[in-house]
Amino acid sequence: MPSGTAKTKQGRIPKIYFLMNRINSLSVNAQVLAGKITGYPTLKTFWENVAKAFTDKRILITVSERKPYKTNSQNSYYWGVVLPIIQAGIIDTGERMTADKVHELLKYRHGVNDQIPDPETGEVLHVAKSLSTYTKEEMSEYIDACIHWAFDILNVQVPAPGEIEKLTF
């Protein structure tokens, strides 16, 4: 039997069918150019895949503008430069903090917050979003806020990305 199929009472069915029955969401990146959607083989194929994945289920279809997420360079700069330097600055004040705790502190102080209403009290709670959901612009603003806070409060200067020398071993 070919590796891409499975044996059932109905005969051989591609494994993709079984995987699609377990999917709870399906996303596709596309772009609208000159009034036409591009970026997926065909819209017909997309809708056929949606129909297979959600057979006999109610679905919600949402179309929204895709914002550019943070870049790998931003992420590397934050985790490899900004965070360790701020952590060292905090340690210099006599406070011992792991990198994860410093990250949570910075996220709480300077991060983008979701507003969640408490169903019991009606109070609006502010919860820091995960950095993995940040757009490029949000990540830039977050990093800038962290750098300014480090300078103002800890008297620590974080080098700009262009000021960092690459280390070679």
Terminal Cα span: 50 Å
What structural class is derived from the secondary structure elements?
Answer: alpha+beta
Whole-number total of structural domains: 2
The percentage of residues in β strands lies in 5-15%
Individual helix count: 5
Low-confidence stretches: 1-21
H/E series, N to C? Answer: EEHEEHHHEEH
Question: Can you describe this structure?
Answer:
- With about 170 residues, the protein is of the alpha+beta class.
- It folds into two domains: about 45 residues, no CATH class; about 90 residues, no CATH class.
- It is built from five helices and six strands; from the N terminus they run ββαββαααββα.
- The strands form three sheets. A two-stranded antiparallel sheet has the order 1-2.
- The radius of gyration is 24 Å and the shape is elongated.
- The N terminus is likely disordered.
SSE blueprint and pairings:
Elements lengths: L4 E4 L2 E4 H6 L10 E3 L2 E3 L4 H11 L18 H21 L6 H12 L2 E5 L6 E5 L7 H19 L15
Antiparallel strand pairs: 1-2, 3-4, 5-6
Helix pairs in contact: 3-5
